[in-house]
Amino acid sequence: MRFTLELSDEDLLGELMGALALQGCLTDRIGPNACRVVTPQGWTAREARLEIGLFVRAWQGRHPGVEAALIS
After folding, report:
1. Would you give the DSSP letter of residue 40?
2. Which structural domain range is residue 49 located in?
3. In terms of Cα–Cα distance, which of 12, 17, 41 is closest to 28?
4. What pLDDT sits at residue 72?
5. The pLDDT of residue 43
6. pLDDT for residue 12
7. By three-state DSSP, how is residue 3 classified?
8. What is the CATH classification number for the domain harbouring 19?
9. Do 9 and 66 touch, CB atoms closer than 8 A?
10. How many domains, the chain?
11. What pLDDT was estimated at residue 10?
């Protein structure tokens, strides 16, 4: 499953991409504040959206004020 992830703070995008990579996702920067996220094989579309959504929200909890949008 592929998603586009947009972040309000482009300086933190690399950190989030690295954290997603540690979870088995492939990431590719596609803009100053956006990246493409490809989830691991075997995840259903529903699982992928839930897992990435929860992970990004938890990451945001450690970065107050940073907004993130996950687009499928």
Report:
1. P
2. 2-71
3. 17
4. 80
5. 86
6. 97
7. strand
8. 3.30.70
9. yes
10. 1
11. 95
